[in-house]
């Protein structure tokens, strides 16, 4: 952890925990008998998919909102995410009495639009791509003074996600390894900073899918790079880290011990195991920690391990096909 100071400090995470404690659930960490037996060490599951809105994204969104000045909050917040960040921001804004505007392209399916509206957000539909939606965000920031809340590359968002790390250490003080789903790196940055400050010897490993592993490619290149986006069962892990990344690239570089990559079949096996053995419905991104253990890709060094089930917002038809072992779906997703 040497080198230049990181964009988020441990104290920011403790402050976030105090700020958001009345607004988010403190999710349980439970021991998995089946994964403990398989791994030969105690394996704890942080059941964060039970978080309000179905993912941890609510922590960062709440912390960002509650860190704003009253004037900023009055102006309203804006983002381009139609996934878990959009849901979280819509929910948090409604709870705090402000308005969220979620920008999306014409390609976004109607059910997603309806879901975001149901959460109380305004929806702006423009253009035919995520880039067009992002341009609309920038227009609303410029013209209407809305405040952008990005999904990961923001210090308040990272500090909010880091509160999960505090809870993991509280629940499992003897933890030796933490597995964290990884995309833009907001979750991994915050959790790694929290866990390693409290327990300097703990290893923190990011888990993501083989194709479209933007943080891994960027760390290998020594700077943020773009990778082609390929559909995946772990759809919440898609997207780049941003070529102008300010926060999470440096933090993942400083704090992650390793990044493990998974195939679509391995992610499907993780979802199946979560359902059949743990009786938990998780989306692909939420199952990657289990999947990495099942695939034999984690060396526990004989120490207790914790992993985060990060979300559960999966289409139930897709989930049913995954747990039924329908393999055509892997080809579809790989196409
Ligand atoms: C956003 C998300 C991730 C990845 O988080 P990053 O901060 O982008 O690395 C993992 N799992 C779920 C369910 C998510 O919604």
TrEMBL record:
Any one GO biological process: isoleucine biosynthetic process
Q: Which PROSITE patterns match?
A: DEHYDRATASE_SER_THR
Q: Where do the coiled-coil regions begin and end?
A: none
Q: Which UniProt keywords apply?
A: Lyase, Pyridoxal phosphate
Cofactor(s) essential for the protein = pyridoxal 5'-phosphate
Highest taxon, organism lineage: Bacteria
Q: Where is the signal peptide?
A: none
The answer to whether UniProt assigns keyword Lyase to this entry is: yes
Q: Which SUPFAM superfamilies match?
A: Tryptophan synthase beta subunit-like PLP-dependent enzymes
Tell me the GO molecular function terms. Answer: L-serine ammonia-lyase activity; pyridoxal phosphate binding; threonine deaminase activity
Domain Tryptophan synthase beta chain-like PALP residues, every copy: 20-311
Q: Which InterPro entries match?
A: Ectoine_EutB, Ser/Thr_Dehydratase, Ser/Thr_deHydtase_PyrdxlP-BS, TrpB-like_PALP, TrpB-like_PALP_sf
Task: Provide the family line.
Answer: Belongs to the serine/threonine dehydratase family.
- Name of this chain's protein: Hydroxyectoine utilization dehydratase EutB
Q: Which organism is it from?
A: Ensifer canadensis
